Amino acid sequence: MKTWFITGCSSGFGRRLALAAAQRGDQVIATARRVETIEDMAEPLDGRMITLSLDVTDAAAARAAIAKAVETFGGFDVLVNNAGYALFGAIEEGTPEEYRPMFEVNVFGLIETTRAALPVLRRSGGTIVNMSSGAGIEGRGGGGYYHAAKFAVEGISEALAGELAPFGIRVLIVEPGPFRTDFLGRSIAMAAKEMPEYAGSSRKRYRETSNGNQPGDPDKAIAVMLQAVDADDAPLHLPLGRIAHSIAERKLAAFRRDIDAWRHITIATDFEQP
């Protein structure tokens, strides 16, 4: 039996993962900014789940939620940083009032929750699951701020993997493509300013046409995530769905082309060896 601490459980992958873990017999601390949106989940689960209010941008709240988890279950061995949302719009269209809060949730909230959880995990070992995205693998026009936030999640996660391995703590970076959750509905903010110069890279039409038509089955994704957390040989990177794999393969191929094309020029920038 595992004990999970999961952020962002009001909808989407967070809610589904919390329920799936508890229904298979694990213990779950499910959190959301508005706890009333998740209280119904715990009622039929015979004490295997508690629900807590947690705004991940509040470091003190993160510490308090971790303390309550330890008080209730004695600790936990899986931390899932799932809370987050996206901002769509060209870089020039976005404003600080729009993009800074998104970074506070997706990046700094993840950092604060992880820092609060690490003293617990270092005692017991376990797994940190950081929810990234195909958007954390490759950047595309119209989603630059969201790409930047998820690229940060990737870098933080890779660094944590090296830092925490001596403590028996693994890191799993989950990189879903488009899945049929309500992400494109309730978890997307659009830059208020729409400049005609960037109409060609707008993600607005993508949101309108793709919401409800995403190819990914979220229940299958949750099953794979549970399998990866349970596995002894789980990878650091876990792209989910054909589109996420295509993104990764395209990025790797483009990176290789760039490296090879300028290799003889760029490696010559080192000092000459005596």
Written account of the structure:
The chain is an alpha/beta fold and 274 residues long. It has a single domain (3-246), classed as NAD(P)-binding Rossmann-like Domain (Rossmann fold). Helix content is 47%, strand content 16%. The chain contains ten helices and nine strands. It has helices at residues 12-23, 39-42, 59-73, 96-124, 144-164, 183-186, 204-210, 218-230, 242-261, 263-266, and strands at 3-6, 27-32, 49-53, 78-81, 86-88, 126-131, 169-176, 188-190, 237-240. The strands form two sheets. It has a seven-stranded parallel β-sheet, with helices on both faces. It has a two-stranded parallel sheet with strand order 5-8. The chain is globular and about 60 Å long. The N and C termini lie far apart (59 Å).
What can be said about this structure in brief?
With 274 residues, the protein is an alpha/beta fold. The protein has helices at 12-23, 39-42, 59-73, 96-124, 144-164, 183-186, 204-210, 218-230, 242-261, 263-266, and strands at residues 3-6, 27-32, 49-53, 78-81, 86-88, 126-131, 169-176, 188-190, 237-240. It has one domain (3-246): NAD(P)-binding Rossmann-like Domain (Rossmann fold, 3-Layer(aba) Sandwich).
Comma- or semicolon-separated keywords:
274 residues; alpha/beta; Rossmann fold; seven-stranded parallel β-sheet; two-stranded parallel sheet; 47% helix; 16% strand
Element layout with pairings:
Blueprint lengths: L2 E4 L5 H12 L3 E6 L6 H4 L6 E5 L5 H15 L4 E4 L4 E3 L7 H29 L1 E6 L12 H21 L4 E8 L6 H4 L1 E3 L13 H7 L7 H13 L6 E4 L1 H20 L1 H4 L8
Parallel strand pairs: 1-2, 1-4, 2-3, 4-6, 5-8, 6-7, 7-9
